[in-house]
Amino acid sequence: MGLAAAVVIHNGEFPRNSPKYQESQGVRCYVDESNGYVGESYEKGVLAVPDQNYANHRQVVPLFHYVLMPVLLLTVIGASVNLYESWGDHERVYSASLLLVLAICVTLAALCARLFATKVQDRAIRAEENLRHFVLTGKLLDARLTPQQIVGLRFAQDNEFVNLARRAAEDGMSGDAIKKSVQSWRADRYRV
């Protein structure tokens, strides 16, 4: 589900007497009960964001997924065709093979950059969820939990987090199974 709506506010304010205006922890919010959207106010307006759940929690970065990766894939394919076409021509084979090697290297660099960023996010999530478990129970997370399980646990609200963490460690649940087991979803919009 994509961006659904944008609510523009005059002078950065909602009318305080509006039933759709709420203020929580210093953040002004506009709530539209008809479709479940909540938007935080900014100086020039409100950006409406859908509630997060299992079905829509995966994030796509359009520039990476729809522009960079297809262009790199097409570059590798084009460089491969160029090498194939120049195979009999000894004047072009070196430059064609060099183009293919460079295209593959750039593609691998883009994939590694994505992988490295995801690994850093996994470490941050592990530290956050370990602290959260410690605050709730006085103990660190079970050492048997894998990074994928801990990443899945971040979506559980506090009232089900501890039991779900115990169950995940004992039953060896996958990260995806943990996400599907979450009854009360806790949104995480920071990981991409």
Which features does this protein show?
alpha+beta, 5 strands, 5 helices, 192 residues, 2 domains, 5-stranded antiparallel β-sheet, elongated
How is this structure best summarized?
The chain has 192 residues and is α+β, with helices and mostly antiparallel strands. It has five helices and five strands; from the N terminus they run βββββααααα.
Describe the structure.
Strands 1-5-4-3-2 form a 5-stranded antiparallel beta sheet, with no helix packed on it. The longest helix has 45 residues, at 93-137. The chain folds into 2 domains: 6-51, no CATH class; 62-181, no CATH class. It has helices spanning 62-85, 93-137, 147-153, 158-171, 175-181, and strands at 6-7, 21-24, 27-32, 37-41, 46-49. The protein is of the alpha+beta class. Mean pLDDT is 79; it is low at 1-46.
Mean pLDDT: 79
Strand content: 5-15%
Sheet having the most strands: 5 strands, antiparallel
So what's the overall shape?
A: elongated
User: How are strands sequenced across the largest beta sheet?
Assistant: 1-5-4-3-2
| Count of discrete structural domains | 2
SSE order, one letter for each helix or strand: EEEEEHHHHH
Our count of helices gives: 5
How large is the radius of gyration? 24 Å
Termini gap: 15 Å
Which class do the helix and strand fractions yield?
Answer: alpha+beta
What kind of oligomer do you see? single chain
Low-pLDDT segments, ≥5 res: 1-46
Helical fraction equals 40-55%
Count of extended strands: 5
